[in-house]
Amino acid sequence: MDGDDEVKNMIEAKEVPTDCTLCYHSCGCRVTVKDGRAVKIAGLNSHPLNHGKLCPKGANALATIYNPDRLRRPLKRIDGSFREISWDQALDEIAERLLDLKKNFGPQVLGVFSGSIGVENFEMGGLVQRFKTAFGSPNFFSVESVCYRMRIRVRQMTFGRYPVEEMDSHLYILWGHNPEQSDFPLKLALKRNRNQGARLVVIDPKRIPLADMADLYLQIRPGTDGALALAMMHVIINEKLYDRDFIEQHTFGFERLVPHVQKYTPEWAEEVTWVPAEDIRRLARLFSGTRGASIYQGTCTQDQTANGVQNSRAFSILQAITGNVDVPGGWVTSPPPRLRDVSLGVEGNPMGADRYPLFVEMWGRKSPYGVVTLVPESIPEVLRAFFVIGGNPLVSMPDSNAFRNAFRKLDLLIVHDLFMTETAREAHYVLPACSHLEKWGVAYSYNVCHGLPFLMLRKKCIEPLYESWSEWKLFTELGKRLGLEDRFPWRSEEEMIAFELAPSGFSFDDLLNRMPEGVFYTEKNYEQSEGRYHSPSGRIEIYSETFERAGFDPLPTFLEPERGPRRASKAFLEKFPLILSTGSRHIGYTHSQHHGADALRKMYPEPLVQISPATANRFGIEDGDRVIVETNRGQVNMKAAVEERVADNVVLVPHGWEGDANANLLTDVECREPMMGYPDMKSLQCRIRKA
Hints:
Structural class: alpha/beta
Largest sheet: 7 strands, mixed
Distance between the termini: 56 Å
Strand order of the largest sheet: 5-4-19-18-17-6-7
């Protein structure tokens, strides 16, 4: 190619600054488009979160977008197999069946589910909620029914707002959290700040590589994080290491916490958690002695254990009594951008409001989320139609067999996705969806995930491939057929985005042309003023009367896992003697997504069950053997990885794989956290043998 050709190619190609929605971080990226095709993707240097770097899945996003296995046209199940049909036929038939079910059984028979990208994608989650409300159903479910929403809810009930961990901290406590595999921006920030003297603590049943550089590593029994947190409070209170001034000015109920924690000694916690009492004291002293320290929660400490709510309560209180709230490096509250929500207000009570009221309503404010663990038992008596948008619940939700058996009883199952997932294979209709580069959106999650008051326009970089439709187009066209066209008034996606942005002070044109790389919409404020905490007491509620009125402990307590070695029956433990924790992550995948990208499969080609050498020797297993892991609910077949780093008698199973490697064949939808109905997926019991 000569110089003129190179100049011509540069002129023809254009570079579009946008964000990546392949996980919830929404890192900034630069997409090079030539002749209508995205040909290159790279990090956006100016972005305050990822500073020009991308994780493997972000760097290989085009392999997913241009994957030849993408769905191309609507599919209908006919006589057990799928046949291509037109969009008109698909929507006409879906609308007819929905209206018939609504007429015969009422609108509440419809359940809608928004997957992981509905969390990252403001428009997807909002439009799904808008659709169910317009139809008349209260039943909206999402991956947040097993991940993250509990954390938000508990912090709101403690602080009256939602403080988050900053990227930059003086002390990182990675509590069941491994940023090298699940939190790329935090990995970058941790490396940067370690070089500047930040301290690091790792608490995990596996000695992850980051633990090798940590100031302190604690190998904990899965499911006992709350016991460790309570013992830390015991030390901080009895050694008078707490921040007296902050407690007096900003908290409610500390005087009741003091006697409450006296029984939770480090020696008691050592028996429960496997963590030496002296290490608990070291951690408590380090944490309380550091101004600007943060606990970084993983799903195994907050959402997916028997003690999830009280774990999150305990972590919140630890941050508060040490004064590590609204200080640089601690938990901070970044004001959200002023955006119009495309969803409609909640009408009626979503499923679970009677059994798990704290998840649904708080201080008169109602959440749209239903309790997803109740779905299998509710089909077909309550739910008869189910709409899955950008999700794969047969892989991501607990107890896949329970969900599969329930879905097969539905009168109507519709899936809107890029690929033929395990859930899609059970559907009556499968509809092709757009990728994040094929539609417009607002990148807004930086404040609620990272404490960054930053806003960016997600650009439509290329036209939708094949016959893929965005959520806006899908619900607009389906709404017309259901007589709901007035509920979807926007004539284009651009008009809908302009509607969202109207209160923000930034127009669509501003973010497209004048601020294409995003903008800080305000300055971060660490003010610790009166009235900052919007709880009933106007303070951080160490003692929660909200919990007390709901019939739960107003101070954090510890609950042993239902299937744990200190609570399950002797007969059960003889049958299932090992502790199972599912959900191990790999940086190349987001749950069940991106497994079809060749470059990512080369990095992590197959799922591996991780066990210690002592556990392997006990059951006659060698590294690389095919093994069966079994629980009371089912079994998986994977290859064993024997690693010194894993705690003895613990089995770590990765999630997100389909078929007989699906970790949720092992979990039990009936095994739930008692306050918000979340599944225990991190502290079950299992057995293992050679395949």
